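Readers of this paper often ask what the protein records in our data store actually look like. The remainder of this section carries one protein's record, kept here as part of the documentation.

:::
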Amino acid sequence: MASENLGEFLTGNKIQNSAYSINMLREVYCQVLCQVTLTPIEAKSLATHIKYGYHNNWIIDNLPGASVGLTGSGQHQTHYAGGFPIGFLTQDSPEAFVYNHVNIILEYHNPEGKEGHRVVGFAVEPISVNHHYAGGFQWDGMSSDGFTKPLDTCMTNQHMERNAGNFQRVRPGENIIYTYDVMWRYSETAWASRWDVYLSEDHMVPAQVHWYSITNSILVVLFLSLLVVSILVRNLRRDIAGYNAMAALTDEEKEEEAEESGWKLVHADVFRPPQNWPMAYCIMVGSGVQIGVCGFFTILLSAVGFLSPARRGSLMTSVLVFYMLCGCLSGYVSSRLYKSFRGRKWQLCTLFTATGFPGLCFFTFIFFNTILAFFRSTASVPFLDLVIVAAMWCCVSVPLVFLGAYFGYKAEAITFPTVTSTIARAIPEQTAFMKPITGICLAGMVPFAAAYVELFFIMTSLWMDQFYYVFGFTLVVYVILLITCAEVTVLLCYYQLCAENHRWWWFTFLSSGSIAGYTFIYSVFWFKSLEASRMLITYMLYFGYMFLISSAMFLVTGSVGALVCLWFVRKIFSTIKVD
């Protein structure tokens, strides 16, 4: 087995050497590789894997093997991600057929001013052929004669071509002879740009689609920004001027004026700590900041080219490293909030911040990995790598969270411009449209509309094993998503305060994070396009990991909305005069 990094193991990529012999510029014609006689159990297992659409994923010189197949009209079509299938089924017969011959197509380039050749392209054309030796020779699969005897199905010095009808069936007792051809073709593609065709999937998805996604997101955020400015700035100026003018009146003049209404009336309660689960609120906001900053720097490095798909496992490794380093931010934010709430169990708050979301992800991963190991799947992660991840979590991430919490508790407490009263103010009865649950359910629609196009490509790359490379677009959409969440939440928070509802802490977090619910619902409908197998483990893996992804999105967007609204509420209440 070749040497892999931690990121490759965590993504289920294990490299093993094969028995194929390939030499530079050496053509190979129908070379026998081996012979396999299927037992009833092996035949059933192979047919089952073909039915479920299992693929081979080959690599030569760090290039993944593209799959060359035929379209419905008989035209050759090449896919550059996902490997090639191990077999196929036909509509006419319930039997399975195995691809026992491969045409290995290699492209090479001669660098100017340098000696030698470089591999710049790699594709595999799988073919099913019912091989037989000439003259009725029967091979035991062990002697050297089988590698030199001619086959009736092969032509001398000619590469194998597809022959409809002469397929290799999968049956008990069937002798399957595996063969391969090697074809060398010259290409003008330079070695530095050999990955371009993989990343663009040979321009299968036009760049205009991503530009449409960006344009859609920008239009949404511009419309929302204009709406926020037109409503908030105009109303806030009028409210602040009216409240300050009221404060300047004498007692007799105040009695003549109409009774005050609006958000100023909750000045004695607006900074009251959350009535329910204040510690959980601090933990979730701190965890969201950690995930959000980690995601931003990971996408940024990918956008500038440091994390290329050519470096297998680099993206997952960078996510782990950035997440650990951002642990100090998580501890700092949660501790500052918890201190402002006058919480006393700061050790427990810091411990849950360090172990809450990471623990959920780790033990979910352990659970799925155990099931995959039981099925002997190559996607299962070795035990040693699990120990390494656990050590990184316990020995690096957790101490950094406590370090950030130490500085957070040592810092000055967050000051509020108004004094909180002893007894909480009663909240008036809300109309159906102004109820918090209505705002929470509707708030996620606008951010989701700004990001759903790019979300489709991310889901396709994640679950269909395709290369994703437009991280520049992803970075723009990510920033627009956070801005949209912040603007929607500020607008809803303002209207809740105007309705004299001072319980805005959890409302802003849940409103901004509600886009995660829309994302998970979208993933349920998108699952139909995946055309996955009907095995229970398939459903568990997909919806289990989509739940974790949606949870991370919930924490990130929720923390952005909560922190921006904290700044907004402090800002508006610091501009009015309060008795």
Remarks:
- The radius of gyration is 31 Å.
- The first helix runs from residue 6 to 10.
